[in-house]
Amino acid sequence: MEKVRLSGEKATLLITLYAKAQESRLPGSLLQDGWAAHAVARIDHDFTALRMSRDAMLVLSMRAYLLDVWVREFLAAHPAATVLHLGCGLDSRVFRVNPSSAVAWFEVDYPDVIALRSALYPARPGCELVGTSLADLGWLAQIPTDKPTLVVAEGLFLYLREEEVLQLLRVVSTQFPTGEVVFDAYSRLGLALASRNRMFRATGAAMRWSLNHAQDLEAQAPGLLLRTEQWLDDDSLRTQRARFSWLARMGIGLARRVPPLRRMGRLLRYRY
After folding, report:
1. 33-72: b or e for each residue (b if 16 or more CB lie within 10 Å)?
2. What is the end-to-end Cα distance of the chain in Å, rounded?
3. Which positions of the chain have pLDDT values less than 70?
4. Three-state DSSP class for 218?
5. What's the rounded Cα separation, in Å, for the pair 73 and 78?
6. Separation CA 131–CA 112 (nearest Å)
7. Which residues form the signal peptide (predicted)?
């Protein structure tokens, strides 16, 4: 069993890991993340103390699933690409997506998180672990620049300061010749509500960055062009709505009709 001593934004990785593990045990699992379930079983932590609702595990798993879809689409178009998985935590995306050996995949997170990840998951050819703070962009110098590059940041940017997010995106969009950046973002209202979530509040993590309008980022980080803005209530996931509680389904229906509510949380895909 692996002991964990994480706090702040690092501790939030236990919430998302548990959500994916639990959703994968449900009938008709969307994510089917056996790797997450295996990791949870090896961690010495009382996950039941989270008192995670079914709706929460479904939302977090749907977010991961949609980002997986975009990763697979990018790799289908660019079979020999570079993938930067920022704030990877204990997410098993590289195993779920299972890229070919032609893909250079980098898992990036704090050194202690990377050490925990190394203890829980096997080494994988073509996948390199990078232990660093994202506030220091010096690690980008070791990344090859001769391939299309996909940057994936799930549940990460909301914990960074605005200048940190913008600096990272500006460097990526100028250092690499072509590629995409995919991540989740919240409006100011969405961030305020997310920061009141009992599970995340208990970690002590500070939520900082919000984005009201996806197009605003094009001006703040020149070189980025919005390709897709997708919500978890997208019609492509309509079969998943029946899995939610009646209260959550009512909320989804209301958000579909009220734009400010719909913008509270969504997935964004930019090309550069």
Report:
1. bbbbbebbeebebebeebebeeebbbbbbbbbbbbbebbe
2. 43
3. 233-238, 254-255
4. helix
5. 9
6. 8
7. none
Residue carrying the six token digits 């990785």: 13
Tokens of 230: 């997708």
Contact 243, 28 (CB under 8 A): yes
Enter the tokens of residue 172.
């990526």
Q: Are strands 265-271 and 179-186 parallel, antiparallel or unpaired?
A: antiparallel
Can you tell me which residue has the tokens 């994510």?
31
Residue given tokens 């709505």 in the structure block: 241
Residue type, 40: V
Determine contact, residues 180/270, Cβ cutoff 8 Å: yes
| Unique residue bearing structure tokens 């019609």 | 235
Q: In angstroms, what CA-CA distances link 172 with 22, 43, 69, 143? A: 34, 34, 22, 11
Closest CA to 200 of 93, 51, 44: 51
Whole-angstrom distance, CA of residue 11 vs CA of residue 61: 18
Q: pLDDT at position 44, please?
A: 93
Structure tokens at 261: 């509510």
Tokens at 42, concatenated: 């090896």
- Both tokens of 69, joined, read 């879809």
What would the pLDDT profile of 72-120 be if each residue is shown by its tens digit?
Answer: 999 999 999 999 999 999 999 999 999 999 999 999 999 999 999 999 9
